[in-house]
């Protein structure tokens, strides 16, 4: 197989019924468009997600499967997927099927038209298909985040993103960091942009989050990211 230009990283936990249709959609969207690989990270699922993924490797040559020996959460899964990825650019998707792989070419097109300083293209769910309570909680959280971090990003919680691998791996790592990628990229001196994308209902499985738990963790993380931004220091470097 030729060197991949894009690695599609998908973290999953107990998503056995969503694995096959999502992988089929990824290959439909990207085959013939770009050299790519698909990197699934099973976060120590308690169902047979891992077995389903291993069986799909026989019919999906682009598929690679990583497995966490202990459950470690979405941010760790994304980071490990990126660390093991072979391509210079990464597209991420949530494993629940609510992100549409057909939007990946749209992100790639936005990259082609953007300046080289733009290292993150973040999906923006303009027509969310979540429950009313989840949409309200997300709107409230985004408003507070925007006020504190000033990252000019309307939807940081969207799972579909496109970013440069090297830029991502240079960011400070902490649990839940995937929710603050625009602010962290901007802190590192890069530009980011938001791209409207499709959003779909979950058709199988159950959500792994609740609004209260997400809010309590988010408040602590938000304070930490705000502190990181105030402590950042950048300068140009010359070799002489």
UniProtKB/TrEMBL annotation:
Record EC number: 2.4.1.83
Limits of the Glycosyltransferase 2-like domain: 7-168
Pfam families referenced in this protein's UniProt entry, alphabetically: Glycos_transf_2
Coiled coil start-end: none
Record's keyword terms, sorted: Cell membrane, Glycosyltransferase, Lipopolysaccharide biosynthesis, Membrane, Transferase, Transmembrane, Transmembrane helix
Keyword hit for Transcription: no
Recorded GO CC terms: plasma membrane
Stored CDD domains: DPM_DPG-synthase_like
GO biological process: lipopolysaccharide biosynthetic process
Protein name per its UniProtKB record: Dolichol-phosphate mannosyltransferase
A GO MF term: dolichyl-phosphate beta-D-mannosyltransferase activity
Gene3D superfamilies for the chain: Spore Coat Polysaccharide Biosynthesis Protein SpsA, Chain A
Top-rank taxon: Bacteria
InterPro entries the record matches: Glyco_trans_2-like, Glycosyltransferase_2, Nucleotide-diphossugar_trans
Lineage of the species this protein comes from: Bacteria, Pseudomonadati, Pseudomonadota, Gammaproteobacteria, Lysobacterales
């Amino acid at each position: 197989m030729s060197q991949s230009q894009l690695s599609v990283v998908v973290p999953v936990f107990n998503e056995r019924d969503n694995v096959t249709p999502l992988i089929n959609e990824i290959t439909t969207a990207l085959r013939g468009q770009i050299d790519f690989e698909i990197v699934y990270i099973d976060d120590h699922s308690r169902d047979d997600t891992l077995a389903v993924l291993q069986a799909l490797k026989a019919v999906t040559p682009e598929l690679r499967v990583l497995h966490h020996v202990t459950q470690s959460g979405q941010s760790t899964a994304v980071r490990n997927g990126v660390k093991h990825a072979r391509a210079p650019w990464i597209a991420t998707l949530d494993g629940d099927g609510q992100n549409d792989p057909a939007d990946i070419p749209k992100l790639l097109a936005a990259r082609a038209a953007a300046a080289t300083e733009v290292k993150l293209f973040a999906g923006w769910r303009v027509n969310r298909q979540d429950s009313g309570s989840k949409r309200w909680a997300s709107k409230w959280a985004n408003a507070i985040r925007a006020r504190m971090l000033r990252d000019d990003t309307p939807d940081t919680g969207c799972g579909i993103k496109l970013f440069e691998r090297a830029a991502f791996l240079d960011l400070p790592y902490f649990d839940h960091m995937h929710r603050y990628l625009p602010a962290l990229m901007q802190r590192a001196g890069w530009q980011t942009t938001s791209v409207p994308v499709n959003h779909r209902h979950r058709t199988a499985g159950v959500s792994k989050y609740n609004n209260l738990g997400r809010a309590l963790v988010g408040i602590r993380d938000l304070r930490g990211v705000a502190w990181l931004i105030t402590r950042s220091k950048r300068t140009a470097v010359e070799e002489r």
